[in-house]
Each structure stands twice: as structure tokens, then as C-alpha cells.
Design a protein that fits this description.
420 residues, Cytochrome p450, 47% helix, 3-stranded antiparallel beta sheet, alpha+beta, 5-stranded mixed beta sheet
Length: 420
């Protein structure tokens, strides 16, 4: 099934710029494809929508790295760098039922739809403040310039999740620094990420202790208080859950905002449709539009690691027990067998069961918050920067070369300053 002589080269910088032609080739010629990853680990890539959806819900594919018999050269390379040493492994991305069922039920008691809905005014306030800061930095009264990644898409979810978790305002810039190190080193040396994880773990342990003594109306206090039939989260479990909400929550939203705005800038007809809808006070196209942006060029390129607990077959391909399996969400969400005209951006697409936030029991718990932030950020940018445009050649843009996430390093734009 796998014809290596004609298979496209994966995980190069050229591939990172536009992986979709390579994924189209894999869907057609090698839909379940074994390949060596940049880390040296060999894994199966699942690229067709039907196979991907099946794999995401298949309980024979475990999230627990213990099911992977790691060779020496792959030791510790199948998860988040540093999480094992920092005792942050007991989060929802690394465990299976029944532990996953228990933890998700406990966490859901704290991370409720009501909490997210009540947070909407704060997200709007943060969004407006960051745009205010961009305008205030401009020296010209006419033409402004900004990098929408570093000045907007990156800080917004960091400050938002810190507020929601209950991180004091005076400590939030530390989290911004640690998160920045994670993004900068996402595709390179792992030491920077591991150092940030260690610092974050130490801080969370101290913060959890303080919240036990003086609980507040925040997510960490909610995690500490959450109980089910007398069971509570342990300190390690609470720290791991707070950590993964930060780690998984901020970069996905950075990429949703960055990739989404870039797609709108490259598709002026769709952007104008959305602007007219927003000007008319309508919200439906914004909601379907964000779902389409998640499908078209979503923030998560590959779902997080899974490991076969027994021999199984996916898409006609035999997978051995212990083999790592990576579901390629970016490929599945452009499968022409599932989506009509999948390489075209259509903000009003209605039949859109994309896999951008996963499927099954591991469906992203933070998806409602990410959607809230994405909708608020994009709508506010278009309203307050109505003539925003790319600054420079799109060919000069660079994408971060990480394995799981897909996002721009920078997004330079120009806009008119007056009348914002």
C-alpha cells in the first residue's frame, strides 16, 4: 500500500508551509502510512476522514504511553517534553478509562459551559485592550503596522486562561514567558520546553496550595473542590489538569486566531461576506465561519499520540500492538469523500462535522472556550481594523515546524490608524 518511491517528503520546512498536497497524495495512495518522524519515532499516519473518526473513538488505541515499548532512541519523545519528570502525566491526554472517565467527570464539574459563558465579557475586554495597545504603539496617524501573532493572537488566550484558572495578574507575564518559550522551541530543541514545564509545575504546586487555603471563584479552586462520590483530584492530578488546560488551551487558540485571520485575508470574498454579516448584527455566519476555519486550516494538525494495545486493522492496514498511531486531522478535514470542494473556504458550510477538536471520549474539553475566543477575536479585529491587510509577500511567511500544532510564526499586517 505504501509506495515509498513516489511518496512526498514529510515534515520538511516546505511541507510545513503547505502540507495539504502531501496529505492529498497520502489519502489516495497510502491512507494509513508508516513513517519516521523527525524525532526518530516511527508511527502510523491516518489520513482519511472515515478512518480518522473510527481511530479517534477506538478504545484499542490507548492514550497511555506505557503501551508503547519505546526503543532507546525514542525514549520520552512521544509526549510533551518534561511532563514526565515534572509529574504532570496524569491529565486527560495521557490516560484511558476508567481513570479518564473519573478525571473528566471531576474536571467537567469545574469547567462548565456556564463558567465559559460568564467569561465572555472578560474575553471581549482582553481583546479590546490588546487592540488598543496595538493602536497606541503606532507612530503615524495614518498607516499602522502590527504582528497579529505576537501582539494579539498569542497574548489573548494566555491572559484569558490565566484569568480563568485564577493566576494573579501580577504573575501572568511569567506564564506568557513560559508559553512563549514553548512555542519558540516547539519544533526545535526540547530543552527549552522542558524548562518551561518545570517552572510551570513549580508555580502550579504553590498556587494550588494557596487556593486550598483561600479558594476563590476560579477554575483551580473549582478543580480542588470538585468531587464525585467522595473522590477528589489529587494535587498531582489538579496540577496536571491545570497544566494541560494551559498547554493545550493557549496554542490551539493562538493558531485558530492566526490561521483563521490569515485565511480571511487570503479570501477577500469570504471576508467581505462575514463583515457584512457582522455589520448587520447577525451572528450565524460568524459561528459557522469559525467552524469552517477550524476545518480548512485548523490549529491542530495531528491528534495527540495513541498506541495500539492489541493488533488491529485501520483502513485495511494491519497495526501491531504497541505501534504509535497519529490521526492527521488536517488531512481528514479535507477529505473529498466527506466534504464537498474541501480545498475551498466556505464560511457558510453547514454540513461540517470536522475533527478539529477530536471525536469520542477525548473530544477537547476546552473547545467552547476556544470557540468563544476565536469568534470574539476575529469579529473584533474585522470591526476595529476594517481595512487590515497583509504586509509583505505571503511566500515570506513561516510556519512553526512542530508535529501536533499548525500555526504561523508571524502575521504582519497593515491598517489605517485613525477612527479605530
Amino acid at each position: 500500500m505504501n509506495d515509498a518511491s513516489t511518496a512526498p517528503e514529510l515534515f520538511t520546512w516546505e511541507f510545513a508551509t503547505d502540507p495539504y498536497p502531501a496529505y492529498a497524495w497520502l489519502r489516495e495512495h497510502a491512507p494509513v502510512h508508516r513513517t519516521a518522524l523527525p524525532s526518530g519515532v516511527e508511527a502510523w499516519l491516518v489520513t482519511r476522514y472515515a478512518d480518522a473518526r473510527q481511530a479517534l473513538a477506538d478504545q484499542r488505541l490507548s492514550k497511555n504511553p506505557a503501551h508503547h515499548d519505546e526503543p532507546a532512541h525514542a525514549k520520552g519523545k512521544t509526549g510533551i517534553p518534561g511532563e514526565r519528570k515534572a509529574e504532570l502525566m496524569t491529565h486527560l491526554l495521557n490516560i484511558d478509562p476508567p481513570d479518564h472517565t473519573r478525571l473528566r467527570r471531576l474536571v467537567s464539574k469545574a469547567f462548565t459551559p456556564r463558567r465559559v459563558a460568564e467569561f465572555a465579557p472578560r474575553v471581549q475586554e482582553l481583546t479590546d485592550r490588546l487592540i488598543d495597545d496595538i493602536f497606541e504603539k503606532q507612530q503615524s496617524a495614518e498607516k499602522g503596522e502590527a504582528d497579529l501573532i505576537h501582539e494579539f493572537a498569542f497574548p489573548l488566550p494566555i491572559y484569558a486562561i490565566c484569568d480563568m484558572l485564577g493566576v494573579p495578574r501580577e504573575d501572568q507575564d511569567d506564564f506568557r514567558d513560559w508559553a512563549g518559550m514553548m512555542i519558540r522551541h516547539g519544533g526545535g530543541p526540547r530543552g527549552g520546553v522542558a524548562r518551561s514545564v518545570k517552572k510551570m509545575r513549580g508555580y502550579l504546586a504553590e498556587l494550588i496550595h494557596r487556593k486550598r487555603e483561600e479558594p476563590g471563584d476560579d477554575l483551580i479552586s473549582g478543580l480542588i473542590k470538585a468531587s464525585d462520590h467522595g473522590e477528589h483530584l489529587t494535587e498531582n492530578e489538579a496540577a496536571a489538569m491545570a497544566f494541560i488546560l494551559l498547554f493545550a488551551g493557549f496554542e490551539t487558540t493562538v493558531n485558530l486566531i492566526g490561521n483563521g485571520m490569515y485565511a480571511l485575508l487570503r479570501n477577500p470574498v469570504q471576508r467581505e461576506r462575514l463583515e457584512r454579516s457582522l455589520a448587520a448584527g447577525e451572528s450565524e455566519l460568524l459561528a459557522t465561519g469559525v467552524e469552517e476555519l477550524l476545518r480548512y486550516d485548523g490549529p491542530v494538525e495531528l491528534a495527540t499520540w495513541r498506541f495500539a494495545t492489541e493488533p488491529l486493522t485501520i483502513g485495511g492496514q494491519s497495526i501491531a500492538a504497541g505501534d504509535p498511531v497519529l490521526v492527521v486531522l488536517a488531512a481528514a478535514d479535507r477529505d473529498p469523500e466527506r466534504f464537498s470542494d474541501p480545498d475551498t473556504l466556505d464560511l457558510s458550510r453547514s454540513d461540517n462535522q470536522h475533527l478539529g477538536y477530536g471525536h469520542g471520549i477525548h473530544y477537547c474539553l476546552g473547545a467552547p472556550l476556544a470557540r468563544l475566543e476565536g469568534q470574539t477575536a476575529l469579529a473584533t479585529l474585522l470591526r476595529r481594523m476594517p481595512d487590515v491587510r497583509l504586509a509583505g509577500d505571503p511566500a515570506d511567511l513561516r510556519w512553526r515546524g512542530g508535529l501536533i500544532m499548525r500555526g504561523l510564526r508571524t502575521l504582519p499586517v497593515e491598517f489605517t490608524v485613525s477612527g479605530n
